[in-house]
Amino acid sequence: MPSGQHAPGLGTHHLPWPDFDSLARSEGDPGPVRELRAAERSRRLLLLRSLIDQTTKSADLFTPLPSPETAWELLSRVERVAPAQIELILAHPYTGSWAGYTTRLCRQDVTGVCPFWVHIGHVHALAAAAAIRAGLPFETEVPVWQGKVSLPTLGMATLRTDAPFSVARVSCRDGVVKVENQISVVRLPADRITDAPGWWGVREAVMWSGERRLAIRLDDLDPYRGLYEPLPPRRLTSVETESWRTVLGEAWHLLTTLLPRIAEALPEGLDSLVPDPAVPFRLPSASTGEAFGSAIIAYGDHAPTLAAALVHEFQHIRLGGLLHLARLYEDDPRERFYAPWREDPRPIGGLLHGIYAFFGVTMFWRALAAAEPDDQLAAFEFALWRAQTWRTIGVVRPDRSLTPAGRRFVDGVAELLEPWQDEPVAPGPATWAAAAARDHYAAWRVRHLRPHPATAEALATAWRAGRSRPGIGPL
Q1: Tell me, what's the pLDDT at 267?
Q2: What is the pTM of this model?
Q3: Closest CA relative to residue 271, chosen from 75, 50, 32, 34
């Protein structure tokens, strides 16, 4: 049974209050992030064992693949000779996504994107990837989806097949790894991350800024890299890959220069990036609490905007990990709050995530505006997000859904954010920020609030008659 080189016995994860407060204030201490990652490792291992226990006794759940218990046995072999490889597989963000998604399929008895045996069979792919990394001789069977065989953290093989879902054999003998079915064979290159006939390796971007290093997988292959459900691969071209590496290097240099403490902690909590296609005039990004360590970010060639997005998603990652250890709010799914960064009403959990993420965004633009006084974009972004985040804190602070820990967390954010409200910003960017905030709020109200019919009638009548707005109170 995999137990992990750092966990000789059973224990509990906890976060001391000083570390909790450090996270709330977005300080750059990597220690609390390591503790969150360790807790995620334990959570994933428990989900993995639970899935095996739930499915191994019912052959119809995993046939035509071997029992999931055989994957556990292979993982146990790996742990005995190369425990670091088990840790790498458990730390892989999409191991968490897969475990969460497949657990929901089990518990809610719903249909997934693929037949259930394909989803539960991904455990064999995880075990095979760990064994390949460890250099163990082995043979196992794995699921094939549309001719693709995923080996998480390593890459993806393509086999010839007419079936949407089928089975392939993965083996390692004398250091030679093969993925094969009845009609095709793919031999993995010795350097697994390089491409070869029938094989795509997971690419990596390694950035240096002085002595600070950031290594991120550019994962366009893993089927569980999405937010909600499995996805087919979307392979970057070589040109796209190099463009990503270039702009990531520029963004990393900005972070190490402007926010050195954040840059110290970020590599502990962000090791995989899902590259999305560019979106005109925007740089959307997203993450999920189940994939601790991963962010989905659209391509953009403006390094400061990408740096802000990296901080934004790092905040989401840290808070997602913290929420697996601490209860910050009572369950309340009602979508009842205005969020200045969204077009839809948000529940308390989503609003808290937004506050923390945009606190980090504000921190970045504040630092850039101070370093580059003539940068009007930085000044505008700082002015906009300091005000919008502070406004939202004022709404959340008195809400009864917050637990004492949640209120302490919000107070920690507010402690740093409040003094920033009085910092000077050039008149132009300050005016633009205020106008953008008013515009967003007005559009949100038009979309989501329904005035009383009598109010609408009075306003329409006054407008048609050319009169000023009647005295009907605030809208």
Answers
A1: 97
A2: 0.93
A3: 34
